[in-house]
Design goal:
- With 456 residues, the chain is an alpha/beta fold.
- The protein has two domains: 303 residues, 3-Layer(aba) Sandwich (Alkaline Phosphatase, subunit A), CATH 3.40.720.10; 141 residues, no CATH class.
- It is built from 14 helices and 22 strands.
- The protein is globular.
- The chain binds zinc ion.
- The site of zinc ion has 6 residues, from loops.
Length: 456
């Protein structure tokens, strides 16, 4: 009997409305998978960002359990720069660890937070954040020379200088990167014939951040991805369960909320050395003994208390922390936007939304305008407005959205039960137990609402 096989084809930031809302025949390969299988929105992690979302999918753990709250994390209760997460931070078994333990072969390609590549039964090419030309991005190391050969050029772990490269050059890089990644995917698949195949292609994320205001370019790249997925799926054994997934979606960015400026205005953050021109908040600017709260920006906002007994110059007595956080949360949710109407901020407490809170989580997680706005760490010399038209780390037309994509279908001509029907309520966290069940691994039992339930 054939062993069960699964192929997870991750397309970072692929937006459900641009896939499921596209005209019939415009994305023929994805639409064929939808017709043979099940499809729908996939609820992402809070926050919906590449790191940690893909690793949550690969482990079934939430960001708090992993202790990874973003690309950058507080490694200690100091005021210095945040530390960048790496594969070495992940202690939970990942799908390929479970497959290896069961004697199955896995191929992992481009999965975020897998650098440095670690031994497994099969092969691993690490993901974005792999330093260019770095050793340690490929397991087994003897595989490295094949990548460029399969790719027909330099294999690109990620696009170079995506915030600053000239636009035309960036678009060319995106298409080249996608073509080469899928060429390597086909090469690895042919060499290993793995029971578990998992890849992530980053170009849709880079594309949408750079070209969201040019829907024609976005649609053209979606068509390219559709044809590359079709080519890969055609090379898989027909009984393979294919999952096309994204870690989050994309939406129009309305503007920036300078969160630290707002904290200054509210009296929570006090600067003793304000910058001469707009700059990200830096520890040496801050009058720490008079500062109760500060924040970091990005696709979402992270709010930290300056807690006595924890931070070096903590100013909030621990017995006052709860009341302060409750008041701050209410003020953030009540914030009015530049037009005087409610901005629609959403505030989360990590301890309320995660099963554990390892490491140093932010005290509050903020979705400015429900993710319509970017949180900026920038501070100005004085009391300048807290709202800006754009992003502070380079031009950007899109922010991340909470819902990603899932399409589940057999690679060949078979059909899933209730083929073609839209799924409701799928969650990114369901993928790990569902794939464990599909591959007959003992690690986890899928719940009744999981992807697994759709396959029955
Ligand atoms: Zn992403």
């Amino acid at each position: 009997m054939n062993r069960p096989r699964a192929a997870v084809i991750g397309l970072d930031c692929l937006e459900p409305s641009l896939v499921f809302g596209s005209p019939a025949g415009s994305l023929p390969h994805l639409q064929a998978l939808m017709a043979r299988g099940r499809w729908g929105s996939l609820a992402s992690t809070i926050p919906p960002i590449t790191v940690p979302a893909w690793m949550c999918m690969a482990t079934g753990q939430d960001p708090g359990q992993l202790g990874i709250y973003g690309f950058r994390n507080r490694a200690e209760a100091a005021y210095g720069p945040l530390a960048t997460a790496s594969a070495e931070w992940v202690h939970a078994p990942r799908l390929w660890d479970a497959a290896t333990a069961a004697g199955l072969t896995s191929v992992v390609l481009g999965w975020p937070l897998t650098y440095p590549a670690a031994p497994l039964k099969g092969a691993m090419v690490s993901g974005p954040l792999t330093p260019p030309g770095a050793e340690g991005g490929v397991w087994p190391p003897s595989l490295a020379p094949r990548l460029n050969r399969w790719a027909g050029g330099e294999y690109l772990f990620d696009v170079k200088d995506f915030r600053t490269a000239p636009r035309r050059e960036l678009y060319a890089q995106l298409t080249t990167m996608a073509r080469r990644r899928f060429a390597v995917a086909r090469g690895l698949y042919g060499l290993y014939r793995p029971e578990l195949f998992m890849m992530v292609e980053m170009s849709p994320d880079r594309l949408q951040h750079a070209f969201w205001e040019q829907p024609g370019l976005v649609a053209a790249h979606y068509r390219l991805l559709d044809s590359l997925v079709g080519e890969l799926v055609a090379a898989l054994p027909p009984e393979t369960l294919v999952l096309v997934v994204s870690d989050h979606g994309a939406r129009t960015l309305e503007g920036g909320l300078a969160l630290n400026q707002w904290l200054r205005r509210q009296g929570y953050l006090v600067l003793k050395n304000p910058p001469e021109r707009p700059a990200p908040l830096a520890p040496e600017m801050v009058d720490w003994p008079r500062t109760r709260v500060w924040a970091d920006g990005g696709y979402y906002g992270r709010v930290y208390l300056n807690l006595a007994g924890r931070e070096p110059q903590g100013a909030v007595p621990p017995d006052q922390a709860e009341a302060l956080l409750a008041r701050l949360g209410q003020e953030l949710e009540a914030m009015a936007g530049p037009d005087g109407q409610s901005l629609g901020n959403r505030v989360f407490r990590p301890r309320d939304i995660y099963r554990a809170t390892r490491g140093l989580p932010p005290e509050l997680i903020l979705y400015p305008g429900g993710l319509g706005w970017r949180a900026l760490a920038t501070v100005w010399p004085g009391d300048e407005p807290v709202f800006t038209p754009g992003n502070d780390s380079g031009p950007d037309g899109a922010n991340h959205a909470q819902e990603g994509v899932v399409i589940a279908a057999p690679a060949g001509e078979g059909r899933l039960p209730r083929a073609g029907q839209e799924l409701e309520g799928a969650r990114l966290y369901d993928l790990f137990p569902s794939l464990c069940a599909w591959l007959e691994l003992p690690q986890a039992t899928p719940g009744p609402g999981s992807v697994w339930a759709w396959l029955q």
